[in-house]
Specification:
Strand order of the largest sheet: 1-7-6-4-5
Order of helices and strands: EEHHEHEHEHEHEEEHEHEHHHEEH
Bound molecules: oxa(dethia)-CoA
Amino acid sequence: MARYAPARVVTNEDFEKWLDTSDEWITVRTGMKRRHWAAEDQATSDLAIAAAKGALTDAGLQASDIDCFIIATVTPDYLFPATACILAAKLGAVGKAAFDLSIACSGFIYGLTVASGLIRSGVYKRILLVGAETLSKIVNKSDRSTAILFGDGAGAVVLEASERDSYLAAELGADGSTPQTLFQQSGGSRCPVTHSAIDAGLQYIHMEGREVFKFAVTSMISATDIALARAGLDRHEIKFLVPHQANRRIIDAAVKYLELPPERVLVNIAEYGNTSAASIPIALAEAVEAHRIADGDVVLFVGFGAGLSWGAVVWRWHDYHSERE
Ligand code: UT7
């Protein structure tokens, strides 16, 4: 496991210099204090590579030991080819399978499910899964309702075939009937990049915040309940909840319902803001680095985002260090 965040930090006070906003508003409404933004010459694959290299070192593996590279992202280097192809090549693993997974903030959770399925079915033995985003590149920096929310970063994990299965159960879902609730309108085939699209700012993230907020709380709670029931576990058996970091108030509402003590919930939103598909693996990597998660712990990942989409995965943490002893 490893993580990476760009060096440039943008604080709430920084926004006060060019937006009609305040540290107080941002802190109270979101729980965010800082976020990291990529440099002009840094693309998503650059962040992914930094996290991937750390994850490989942590696992004691070379890139050539990996059978398949997956990046969950909505801010790829290019619309095509897949950023995972670039990642694998830059790591020196040309020839291996590589693809991107585009399901926004639910990306890491969907990725865990896809990767676990590929490993369980015997297709691959080792998969490098990365959640990586450079949302600062697609946010309108003069729109106070979105500019303050998003940050850049990457988190990476190596998943390996094992006698002891980690993937206990999941609930994934999507409802694409209102894509405009949260989308980047221009750039695809529905609304190609044109001068008029750019003049209208359609290349930026558009979000109906209140709608997403309501959906977020209910979908997190129901996905968690369904996934836990499938795993045959009670919510009190969760050692750590790792929620997507979109808004502190959303996390708090879900945690209140789940009746989990605060020390069992991994929250780092103050430092990173919302990093979409990267938020869960970054939070997880921080906890692993701090030795907070022990072999055998039940970890519940839960997220939601554009799609609209949602997901929860119940995971039993098996450390490959102890696995290989
Ligand atoms: O990971 C992807 C999923 N995304 C999310 O989960 C985001 C979900 N939504 C949210 O987190 C919240 O809806 C926001 C943080 C985006 C907004 O918080 P809110 O409590 O829902 O505020 P609001 O949109 O209802 O806006 C309240 C007021 C408005 O002013 P009026 O109309 O009441 O005069 C906004 O214009 O706050 C204003 N406002 C701001 N004021 C100061 C909006 N953004 C700002 C700002 N600074 N940055």
